[in-house]
From TrEMBL:
Residues 4-55 form the D-alanyl-D-alanine carboxypeptidase-like core domain. This is D-alanyl-D-alanine carboxypeptidase-like core domain-containing protein. One of its GO terms (molecular function) is peptidase activity. It holds the Pfam family VanY.
């Protein structure tokens, strides 16, 4: 049985106790939000999307991806 209620993946996740806990504790467990507001990749804000950056490979991959610019694939 799940003890956590289902949550739609929406920006209103930031109003939940789970989000508040992540904001306060994620870094302690080597997690960071993948797509914060105003991210350079141009991805919509996703407060539910967190990524592990606790080892050198994860951290390097995350920061390289964070600095990527969106490309226009339509001509």
């Amino acid at each position: 049985m799940d003890s956590v209620p289902a949550t739609n993946l929406q920006a209103n996740f930031e109003n939940t106790k789970a989000y508040q806990w992540l904001q306060a504790n994620a870094a302690r467990f080597s997690f960071e939000m993948s797509f914060p507001k105003g991210n350079t990749q141009g991805v919509s804000y996703e407060p539910w999307h967190w990524r592990f950056v606790g080892d050198s490979n994860s951290l390097e991959t995350f920061y390289k991806a964070r600095n990527l610019k969106p490309t226009n694939t339509t001509n």
